[in-house]
């Protein structure tokens, strides 16, 4: 089973012989465990054995697909001529010869093997909790199969399809269980049911009674652990409880129960779910009962209608990039110059999944630290600290491993002198950025706003050009004026005056920056990547301004927010929603995993 899905699959990892071995489920699990109980009325000399394995995966060509959607709606799908064929390639798995557990006595009785294959979908990360659950399910699934098959003999249900009743004529009963995320199960639903949304469980029947095979191929149960986790939280279950409930539900579908047929069929399947869970000593009353409770409480499992993943769901996806470089103003910060709680959560979640979030900004490092402290994102376990790498002051100060400076570029003194004199002559405020300090020539409310609104260090007033320039290295200069004044007067003048000595760039409409020639945020990002031994192929970048253009061009995948400049939008791979709509968080959930 499952070979036609096998391009998407991997089996679970081999346990190592240690005290922690029980935490990890083997991708090839060749253990046979004798189950002492017998069928209620089995044929003579028949015993159950459980074979839990992820070894060779055989074909999947089922007759029916049953689907549960959030526990509240389960549909049944039949392909042409009653068949569904899931077409995909094969993947090779290691084969291990099966061996019985020590102490199992030899017997001349004919044994009925219960063969269970547990797989993880290829893009599902090896999350510790999921691996623990997979190991538990390796033992739980055969237990559920055994109980369900025993109960078939005494079943008095009138709505169940009785094509499977007596398993005495088979040598082996096979079942595959696949754990996946919403993206994978949504693709199955779209391809084979024409419904483009995720569900919690799919049952795909393999049984073809006309073939008279010695093996009863029950089929495949596909469980989205992502949806299961959300439902578990909503319903007060643990994740293992919810997965057990979904597995029992899927198993009963494969044995002929179908609650969509009628109210009576729903009642019978609900009753069997409850009896199964109680008989196994597991929590819950079943998926159908949970759906009733959810409807009564007004709860629903809301799945995104597009590629955006839910907050809290990134643990079920592998990252597409090793690094996310983020701008600050107009990107991570909303129009109030704050990091929203949604954006903070997205940054923490991406970082917890092993993605390195790196700030690339025109701001000074102290300004970024102050902003992130207010969002509880600064410090040793935060997104930024004094030991963090980062690109600051438009790429003119770059910090690498352990927060050590690896690059600095200063403006030519002649350019600095001319700009400072221009500021005094025209009474246009100017800020000189020198490492972690801000210097200015006179007081002005726009100078104050750079500290109160944009969180930059409070500007030190030094009324003389000579005094201001004495003993300091200036990385960049920032003119502050109205948007009209910048566009109509300041930018045209300084774009011409700097010539081949410096460049002008804008991050905000009411600010103009003078920076060393040939530098940019993008060049700072490239310097940092070289320091890490990384390549742009590993990078996703999010920005909004003209000063983000080179960074967006460099990255493998660039996102410009809709509030950004037309120049940034022109070079980005996609245009995201605005910063006031948590555009950076949306980009992380939509594109980074």
From TrEMBL:
InterPro entries: Cof (IPR000150), HAD-like_sf (IPR036412), HAD-SF_hydro_IIB (IPR006379), HAD_sf (IPR023214), MetalPrtase_cat_dom_sf_prd (IPR023091), YbeY (IPR002036), YbeY_CS (IPR020549). Pfam families: Hydrolase_3, YbeY. It comes from the Eukaryota. One of its GO terms (molecular function) is endonuclease activity. Gene3D superfamilies: 3.30.1240.10, HAD superfamily/HAD-like (3.40.50.1000), Metalloproteases ('zincins'), catalytic domain (3.40.390.30). Its cofactor is Zn(2+). PROSITE patterns: COF_1 (PS01228), COF_2 (PS01229), UPF0054 (PS01306). Belongs to the endoribonuclease YbeY family. This is Endoribonuclease YBEY, chloroplastic-like. It comes from Salvia divinorum. The lineage of its organism: Eukaryota, Viridiplantae, Streptophyta, Embryophyta, Tracheophyta.
């Amino acid at each position: 089973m499952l070979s036609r899905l096998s391009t998407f699959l991997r089996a679970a990892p081999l346990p190592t012989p240690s005290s922690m071995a029980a935490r990890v489920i083997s991708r090839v699990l060749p253990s046979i465990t004798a189950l002492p109980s017998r069928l209620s009325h089995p044929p003579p000399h028949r015993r159950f054995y459980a074979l839990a394995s992820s070894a060779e995966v055989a074909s999947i060509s089922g007759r029916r697909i049953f689907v549960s959607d959030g526990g509240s709606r389960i549909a049944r799908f039949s392909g042409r001529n009653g068949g569904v064929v899931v077409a995909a390639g094969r993947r090779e798995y290691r084969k291990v010869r099966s061996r019985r557990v020590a102490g199992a006595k030899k017997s001349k009785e004919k044994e009925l093997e219960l063969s269970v294959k547990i797989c993880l979908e290829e893009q599902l990360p090896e999350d510790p909790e999921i691996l623990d659950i997979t190991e538990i399910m390796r033992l739980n699934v055969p237990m559920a199969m055994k109980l369900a098959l025993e109960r078939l003999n005494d079943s008095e249900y009138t709505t169940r399809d009785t094509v499977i009743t007596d398993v005495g004529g088979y040598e082996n009963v096979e079942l595959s269980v696949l754990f996946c995320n919403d993206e994978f199960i949504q693709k199955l639903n779209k391809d084979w049911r024409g419904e483009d949304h995720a569900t919690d469980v799919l049952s795909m029947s393999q049984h073809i009674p006309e073939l008279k095979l010695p093996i009863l191929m029950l089929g495949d149960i596909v469980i989205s652990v992502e949806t299961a986790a959300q439902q578990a939280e909503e319903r007060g279950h643990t994740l293992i409880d919810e997965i057990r409930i979904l597995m029992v539900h899927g198993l009963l579908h494969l044995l002929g129960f179908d609650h969509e047929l009628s109210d009576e069929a729903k009642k019978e399947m609900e009753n069997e779910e409850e009896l199964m869970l109680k008989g196994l000593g597991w929590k819950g009353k079943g998926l159908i009962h949970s759906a009733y409770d959810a409807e009564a409480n007004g709860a629903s499992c809301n799945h995104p209608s597009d590629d955006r993943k839910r907050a809290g769901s990134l643990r079920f996806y592998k990252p597409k990039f090793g690094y996310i470089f983020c701008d600050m103003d107009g990107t991570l910060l909303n129009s109030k110059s704050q990091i929203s709680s949604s954006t903070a959560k997205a940054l923490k979640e991406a970082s917890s999944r092993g993605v390195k979030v790196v700030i690339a900004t025109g701001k000074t490092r102290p300004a970024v630290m102050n902003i992130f402290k207010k969002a509880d994102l600064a410090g040793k376990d935060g997104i930024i600290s004094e030991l963090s790498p980062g690109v600051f002051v438009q790429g003119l100060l770059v910090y690498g491993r352990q927060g050590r400076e690896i690059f600095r570029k200063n403006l030519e003194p002649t350019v600095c002198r001319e700009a400072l004199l221009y500021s005094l002559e025209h009474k246009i405020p100017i800020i000189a950025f020198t490492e972690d300090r801000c210097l200015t020539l006179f007081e002005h409310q726009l100078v104050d706003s750079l500290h109160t609104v944009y969180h930059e260090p409070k500007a030190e007033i030094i009324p003389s050009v000579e005094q201001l320039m004495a003993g300091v290295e200036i990385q960049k200069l920032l003119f502050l004026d109205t948007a009209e004044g910048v566009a109509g007067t300041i930018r045209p003048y300084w774009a011409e005056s700097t010539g081949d000595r410096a460049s002008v760039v804008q991050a905000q409409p009411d600010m103009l920056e003078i920076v060393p020639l040939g530098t940019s945020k993008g060049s700072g990002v490239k310097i940092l990547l070289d320091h890490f031994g990384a390549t742009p192929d590993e990078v996703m970048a999010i920005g909004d301004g003209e000063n983000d253009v080179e960074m967006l061009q460099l990255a493998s995948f660039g996102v410009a927010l809709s509030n950004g400049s037309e120049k940034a939008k022109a070079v980005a791979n996609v245009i995201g929603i605005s910063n006031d709509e948590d555009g950076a968080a949306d980009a992380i959930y939509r594109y980074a995993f």
